[in-house]
Amino acid sequence: MVDRFKAMVLRMMKVPPEPEPPAGSDGSVTIFRASKRFFQLNLVRWGFAQISTLIGIIVALTFLRVGAFGLEAVLARIPYEDLATTLVTAAEVLGIALFIIQLPISFFLVVLDWEMRWYIVTDRSLRIREGVVRVKEMTMTFANVQEVSIQQGPLQRLLGISDLRVRTAGGGAVSGPPAKQRQQEAHSLHIGYFHGVDNAGEIRDLILKRLKQLRDAGLGDPDQVQTELVGSEVETMAGTLLTAARGLLTETRALRQSAGG
After folding, report:
1. CATH of segment(s) 16-34+117-220
2. How many CA atoms lie within 13 A of 4 on its CB side?
3. How many whole angstroms separate alpha carbon 234 and alpha carbon 243?
4. What does the mean pLDDT of the chain come to?
């Protein structure tokens, strides 16, 4: 039943299926997923957010009912006291009902956010897909990768997980407070994250190994190499045609001179 409900939600939100592997040989495809401890960390954050919201609701209701400027004192000063009282009570009930209704929905979104994270690495490139409400997919070729680093906060260190950061050429340096930097990187097309993995060192070593193999072979980006080869063939053909045209022009001139003589 849970799987059926999950499939229905994914169809309704038009979340794409499992992503296709990026460019690379079939035998080199390696798939990584976010750790279960990453889900547990997000679940704790979700729990704190729900508790904070509940406390806010309780404080608001208490302030209205028994505060110095209580609800009865406020409503006594305005016309249609009964109607106003009914509307305020309805708003309170609606707020509590919405809070209860969103609990299973937001919890399920936390589960899907963890399950729908894909990190795929081949011998030429990598692909990152994440998100449910807003799906984000990024593909990077190793020929453009400039930096691979591991980031780990205190809670991540406690849980034994970390984030792998991959940066490609073309992305300018981010500046400002840490919060602003994270926001800039989240929207950058040149920085990708393997969020919440428990084997960041293994993934980093794999990427660096394949990057080294690619560069040691002197190939760079295979697509770029293929483009350069095609361009070289075109230049060679153009040179051959130019030489033939010059030869034909020389013979034509020689024939004219012979005819004139």
Report:
1. 2.30.29
2. 1
3. 14
4. 80
